[in-house]
């Protein structure tokens, strides 16, 4: 245990889970650097937040220029350029019609706002979410979260009228053989129709809230047909489709949004993580006509849309556009997949899967995934896990990572897996 971690453990709450206690001093592009000069390749992007790496000169300049001009005033008190300019930029890259924005500080706050907007415009209360989804840690967002029961444990009654539908996760599909994504999606859709007949009157449903790719839940992409079918059901019953792209947007999944990639237009889109380029920022996007039905003053935030966060986000998204990193994301994902090939028949690996630059290796248990990430870190590569049992290792490389660094990093992981992991835990 290093000295910084020892100090942290004395004064910081143990409620926060830690993937590692790496004592960081700074970040430089795709690299993290510790106080004693160790360089670690960051294949986490700070949980999908820094798509163009750390301390990108254009982002650093935008942040310091803005901090020197106006650090805070609150978007409800006055208006300022970065807030408006970021909203204007978003209008050019999001699915058509999503042209109006309310900024928040985080993903969970964006989800809270989306729930409120859906309930205001539909005058209904019910929310249908999908098993394995992660939407945040605030009370409302935690109610919508089912990626792990631990996130709800000990918190008593949460938000009422939240119902959980199956998500097509072929490896976890209870009925059909694993790996048949379409069949799994058909079963899940049939289950939703049953829910609407037996438990949840359609006229009570304000919204479906869905991650198109389960993030914390294991990096599992729904088939496009599933998202389209949920879109159709929402339209049919007069409910909002809220697509949570907090982890997937801005190139991560090989497109500005998965909604665009799948040809689905949500009523409401939630954004955060990469949106702020490393500064705290969230947003709810929806058509102007919808926002106009959200009574003024019924929602707000002191810090949401902070000038420095917006300047950081705008600089980051501008680099993504100018350097064509959305297009490059697909290649980044392919490189990871190519280098992972030696693991295809590894006895502890159940599946390697990918959408864009979101790549996952699902192991047969947490012992194997944790041994693999620990082995990678010994080789100076930072990776994190996800999945209900932490049995999945996710690769979240910077979209501008150098090919040689990426290949070397993934090879180090493969070597760590090959070096062995403990036998599966006894059932
Ligand atoms: C899809 C998704 N939604 C919501 C959240 C919550 O975001 P935050 O941690 O910024 O509150 C996350 C965070 O991991 C996420 O991945």
What is the compact description of this entry?
The chain is an alpha/beta fold and 427 residues long. The protein contains 14 helices and 17 strands.
The CATH architecture of the largest domain: 3-Layer(aba) Sandwich
Q: Specify the helix fraction band.
A: 25-40%
**Which band does the percent of strand residues land in?**
15-25%
- Report the sheet with the most strands, covering strand number, pairing sense and barrel closure: 7 strands, mixed
The stretches of 5 or more residues where confidence is low (pLDDT under 50) are none
**Overall 3D shape:** globular
**Helix tally?**
14
Number of strands: 17
Provide the CATH topology of the largest domain. Aspartate Aminotransferase, domain 2
Instruction: State the secondary-structure class.
Output: alpha/beta
Euclidean distance between termini CA atoms: 32 Å
From the alpha carbons, calculate the radius of gyration and give it in angstroms: 21 Å
What ligands are attached or bound here?
pyridoxal-5'-phosphate
Mean pLDDT: 96
Strand order of the largest sheet: 4-12-11-10-7-5-6
CATH hierarchy, class of the largest domain = Alpha Beta
CATH-wise, what's the superfamily of the largest domain? Type I PLP-dependent aspartate aminotransferase-like (Major domain)
Count of separate structural domains = 2
What are the key terms here?
four-stranded mixed β-sheet; alpha/beta; binds pyridoxal-5'-phosphate; 14 helices; Aspartate Aminotransferase, domain 2; seven-stranded mixed β-sheet; 427 residues; 2 domains; Aspartate Aminotransferase, domain 1
